[in-house]
């Protein structure tokens, strides 16, 4: 039986002082050690904004302000498809404590490409740089 999995996932492009937060997935997660924007799967009945706030609290113990939406991007991995719903975010409160990720880093937008990103994120980084990269420089 060919059951195709298609996930809808929110992700937060968190900006602070001209830098953007990237998070590294742990060795135990799917797509191990790949870099991503924090977030996660949208639960039934949840808005993408609610999902992001919940995920960031669960994963990093921070409350975020959810701002502008960027275009969604769909990517087919070998075993599943994902549609990423990215939003610009800022930290509202809290100090980051990592509950799931292996590491985080803050990078200027023009250095984001130096990390080994989950493939689905590459078009998002491109769209972000095109639309907002200049603001942070
Ligand atoms: N949060 C997030 N997930 C991403 C990004 N890019 C990308 O391909 N993904 C993928 C990785 C995961 O397969 C999926 C997000 O699911 P998740 O992090 O909530 O859950 P998971 O699959 O690691 O964990 P689980 O189903 O075993 O509970 O989307 C991204 O930028 N952020």
TrEMBL record:
Signal peptide: none annotated. Residues 4-129 form the Nudix hydrolase domain. Its cofactor is Mg(2+). SUPFAM superfamilies: Nudix. Its EC number is 3.6.1.55. Pfam families: NUDIX. It catalyses: 8-oxo-GTP + H2O = 8-oxo-GMP + diphosphate + H(+); 8-oxo-dGTP + H2O = 8-oxo-dGMP + diphosphate + H(+). The keyword Metal-binding applies. It is an enzyme of class 3 (hydrolase). Keywords: DNA damage, DNA repair, DNA replication, Hydrolase, Magnesium, Metal-binding, Mutator protein. Belongs to the Nudix hydrolase family. This is 8-oxo-dGTP diphosphatase. It comes from Desulfuromonas versatilis. The lineage of its organism: Bacteria, Pseudomonadati, Thermodesulfobacteriota, Desulfuromonadia, Desulfuromonadales.
